[in-house]
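Aim 2 progress update. The chain analyzed this quarter is reproduced below.
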Amino acid sequence: MPSFRYRALTQSGEIVSGSISAPTAAEVAHRIEYLGLVPIETVTEERASAGRFTLSLSRPRAEDVTVFTRDLALLLKAGARINDALELLSQDVDVGRLRPTVGRIRAAVLSGESFGEAIAAYPVLFPPMYVALVRVGEASGSLDHILEVLGAERVRSEALRRKLADALRYPAFVLFAALAVLTFFLTFVLPQFASVLRDFNAKLDTTVVALLGLSDFVRAHTDAIALVLALVIATAWILLRQARVRAAFMRTLSRLPLVRPVLGFHRTALFCRNLGVLLGSGVALTTTLRILSDMMMTTGDATDWPKTVERVRHGGKLSDALADTAALPSMAVRMLKLGEETGQLPMLAGRVAEFFEAKLQRSLDRVVGIAGPAAIITISIVVGGLIVSVMTALLSVSQIVE
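Predicted structure tokens:
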């Protein structure tokens, strides 16, 4: 007989939990009601453990959280209560892998927690900025508007990430194609000529000798090389999931001359956009800076953001603190300073974000325009050099035969 775990409310409002062995979930609900309790959640222990395992293998995507945010805003604007809206979304296919999490958030809300407290238990899905804005919306009674703003900003940030990914995808594909061509040449093409060149004692230059040795090594250790490559890829994937490693990797990338301006524009646009959203929603400046400091440090920014937060907390101006740490370009700092002086900091921060997003797009176009042709030229030179070296050796063989 299966065992069911349950959570329920007593008549005094206290939360109780326990386990009941019963043939069906309906029987469990009947027994709970017989005890004078109000059932909140009922699940089999087997199903709960399987759900945790599935969740670890297929985590919700960022797009699922965005769809959830926008749909929840629409339901609240339509007049739905938060628990009813969460119940509808927990069964909505568009939410995708987030549905089990939405169900648990609804259970937490029914147990007496606020929506902000419920989502704070999932920091990977709902970052501190998201939670802070939700709490402001709950306190001010404008949760539907806050969620609408959050959904719009998440759509914008996801579009920005797609631009970055698309800009990197083409050069990465070209380099991958170059490695594939070189591997095919070493493992299939070159060995066809190696025996002929060696049998006739052809005059080989240093390049051909090195290529023949490399080809022999690759063919003799194919399994070991494939295993090492698989381990390297798996290790890199695991390490890049760690925030510290990812931040160190981003700091290394930021030192490259071609990548530095792209990351700088992205950092500035990200900071100013979130600054405008948080301040415009009523979040205090010190709280806003603390949230943004944590966010910027996890993206690999080596700037000493905590010092900026401390200086503002002790009465300093945001523009002066940013200027001293050189966290942002001077133009962005001047615009933010103007916003402080005129009392329109949220609006000007949004304008600065739009300006640097446009510069980011131009920089991405420039990087792709340089990296793509450069990769193609490099591949052409390498492959052309290999062909010329082999053909020269073959011509020497034909001269020996004649």
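The longest strand covers residues 3-9. The chain has three domains: 3-56, 60-126, 142-402. These observations will guide the mutagenesis experiments scheduled for the next reporting period.
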